[in-house]
Specification:
This protein is an alpha+beta fold. Helices cover 51% and strands 15% of the residues. The protein folds into two domains: 127 residues, Hypothetical protein af1432; 143 residues, no CATH class. The two termini are 32 Å apart. Bound molecules: fe (ii) ion (FE2) and zinc ion. The site of zinc ion has 8 residues, from loops.
Length: 280
């Protein structure tokens, strides 16, 4: 644990230039959270909880490998697997277990390898950690770290959050994950809906959640539930905004681009995010 913790904290520090004197690490906090969820999921899935927790502890260890994001195009899971070798060799884990951990790390975000049971558990735990009440807290922490005010977080990031919540159960690879996904997604959605009505009352920011169904570009038989948070009226002229959607193939994902355009004055804004992945 201690060795993994220093590896995770060290890579975060080199990447973000965090003050070495500052207490705590965002990435380590996230790592522990994912490990706890993975441990519990593994129990329900009749997998080895300790192994699932070890995979979870290492899952983001390659995130900032070498202090550069995606240096030399090495996927971060490959970097995590590479970092894991010397860390695990110094532990008391047997060869077979070390092999299982390495294999799971390699399969984590590779949809074609989604049959690996440990990878499926940690994949689900990683997504689940971003939802529910702790997930909501993380959303605001992340917004603040990126310098966003409450208003900008709502206007720019909340659509993605609500869409991912709506699609969370369909993104799960395990049955136990799906049970938790239903609950956590409902908590997230209920919180943000109540939050939007409160900022309407207290700050006069009037947003509306528009629900649109959109065919997944690579799997058109599946319709994704997209939830767009957009202003109720144009802030320039009070006109009624219209939304139009398009999906664009990016390097890492299929992006959804929502254009919000005022029907009266033509003022425009755009919201864009990666469409959520769906489990096979
Ligand atoms: Fe993660
Ligand atoms: Zn307008």
């Amino acid at each position: 644990m201690a060795r993994i913790q220093s590896a995770v904290e060290e890579s975060e520090r080199r990447f973000a230039g965090n003050d070495p004197e500052s207490d705590g690490s965002f990435l380590w906090e996230h790592t522990l959270h994912v490990a706890a969820i993975a441990f519990a999921l593994a129990r329900s899935e009749k997998a080895d909880p300790a192994l699932a927790a070890v995979v979870a502890l290492l899952h983001d260890a390659g995130k900032f490998s070498g202090g550069l994001y995606h240096e030399g195009d090495e996927p971060e899971e490959a970097a995590a697997a590479r970092l894991a070798v010397p860390l695990l060799r110094r532990s008391k884990m047997g060869l077979a277990e070390r092999g299982a951990v390495g294999k799971a790390l390699g399969a984590l975000y590779n949809p074609s390898a989604s049959a690996d049971p440990l990878a499926a558990i940690v994949h689900d735990a990683d997504f689940l950690s971003k939802f529910g009440l702790v997930g909501v807290a993380q959303f605001f922490i992340k917004s603040a770290l990126r310098g966003k005010t409450l208003g900008r977080a709502v206007a720019e990031s909340l659509s993605k959050e609500l869409t991912y919540a709506a699609c969370l159960p369909a993104n799960m690879r395990t049955a136990a994950g799906r049970v938790q996904a239903e609950r956590k997604a409902a908590e997230t959605t209920a919180f943000f809906e109540a939050f939007l009505s409160e900022i309407r009352e207290t700050r006069g920011l009037k947003y509306r959640i528009e629900t649109v169904f959109w065919a997944h570009p690579r799997r058109p038989e599946l319709r994704l539930r997209i939830r767009l948070v957009r202003p109720e009226a144009c802030d320039r002229c009070g006109g009624r905004p219209r939304t139009s959607l398009a999906s664009v193939s990016g390097t890492k994902c299929e992006r959804l681009e929502a254009r919000i355009e005022c029907g009266r004055c033509g003022a425009r804004s755009e919201i864009s995010f990666c469409l959520p992945e769906l489990a096979a």
